[in-house]
Every structure is written in C-alpha cells, then in structure tokens.
Design brief:
Length: about 300
Amino acid sequence: MNNSVDLARHAERLGYRRFWLAEHHNMPGIASAATAVLIGQVASATERIRVGSGGVMLPNHAPLVVAEQFGTLEAFHPGRIDLGIGRAPGTDQRTALALRGSAAALSATDFPSQLDELIGYFTHDASRPVSAVTAEGNQPPVWLLGSSGFSAQLAGMLGLPFSFAHHFSAQNTLPALQMYREAFQPSAVLDEPHVMLGVAVVCAESDEQARYLAAPSALTFLSLRRGRPIPLPSPQEAAEYPYTEQDRGFIADRMDSNIVGSPQTVHKGLDSLLADTGADELMVTTMVHGHDDRRRSYELLADIAEL
C-alpha cells in the first residue's frame, strides 16, 4: 500500500493526469479492497493528480454508503476525485456473498437502479426520506466501467464517460466501444462520447527485459484461471515455472493485448491501439514484481507520451 502512495507521487511528478485504484477482495497480493480509504490516502499524499476508483463494484455496497464516502472525498479534495463504477463482484462468488449478505443480492440485474439511486444522493431532494448529507453538492465525475456490452450501452444511454477493460477483455473492445458510441445520448455531463481504455503496459530498456518483467503477471493469471490465486511471483520464479504447452497457449492468448517492450515497441503498440479504437484516454496498469521496475516503466512511458 505504501508503494501505491509512492507510485502516485511519482506519477504526479511525471505529469500523469489520473491515478485510479481498483476493488478486489480475497485475492493474495492485491491490497486494494478498501478502495475509498486508499483513495483518501493517495489524494492526501498528492497535490494535483486526479485520484479515483477503477472502480467501486456497486453491487457490493449500499449506494448510500458509496455516495457518503465519495461526497466526503470530494469535499476534502475538491476537483480531484473520480468515481468509477462497475457491476462485477471483483472477487469469487463466496466472497461476494460475504460482502453482500444474501444470495439474492448476487444478481447484477438491479445495477441500473442502484446507479440511479447513487447519483441521486449527490443532489438535494426534499421529497427523499433519506439524504446523504456529505454527498449533496459534492458530486465527483461519475464513470461507468465495463468489459462487455451491457455497461457500454448503459453508459451511452446515460451520457456518461466510459472506461473499458481492454487489459483483460480485448476481444470485446471494439464491439463495446461501437455499442457505447451508438447508444450515446448527450447529457449534462457530456456532449459527445468519451472513451478511456485500461491497458496493460510494461516498458523497459529492451524488449527482452520487458518480457522478463511481464512474465509474473502471466503466471498470476494462469493460477487465477485454475482457481488458485497467488501473490505476484518474482521474474525468476516465473522463468523457472514448469509450463505445459496448454499453459503457454493460455498465456500467449492472455498476453496478446498487453503492450510489452522497449520504448520504441511500446510507442508503436500504443499508436496502433489508439488508431484502432479512437480512445480519448488510456489508463495504464503495470503489473511487475519490483517497485523500482514499475516506477521505471512509468518513467519511460511518460517520455513516450511527450514524443
């Protein structure tokens, strides 16, 4: 967690515009469960960079609580908080049940009404029996997150900015963005569609070094697929793992959408992605074992952005 704060400060110095934190539960090696708490810590440790959720998994929480938390964050850090909302559990079904308290709450079919309730709390309404006092007048920008067409269409119909999880659902990227743009209705928030893509990037001095640093992420996803999540291994542990041919096939498919390599390779990959998707923003995630390697990757990426 302290590394996350350090990385946010580093990203701010490098000129990055946003720093988002996810919501995951019961996953070893991912210390991002209490999302609102982490956002408060990062925002307090930085000065300019926007800090947000990527995202809060709304079915895990009462909309009233989310409104109170993010209204409070916006009050403490005006103009610097983003509220990204998703409908996936961010965990396995048993953990989702522990979070939500009942099997009936595991369905995401109520998500549109939950989202409407959440947004409503940020505006005073004398007819509403319950008020989120800290939220009223303190609404941060709301983003809808997704990895499929459902959230894409909903974001479009509501006129909200849309952040798509290209880093783990690349096969759905182009169809979802088309759905979003076709469904888009201008709103008080946006006149035109606004797309952010979540992209997995590892940048190092050479292609070979970058692939070496990215290998632990691939092994982590392989273990998750088998139902045995593990902490992020070291590059040496990943290099020595006894992969089967089936494992290698899964990893090749899983890593195909990742942009891994030297600055020249990464620059080419990002340019191609932007040309294919027309995205307005990229949100970069870099899963590497060493904190210094992660910092260096973002440094190299910042240099690329200036070209």
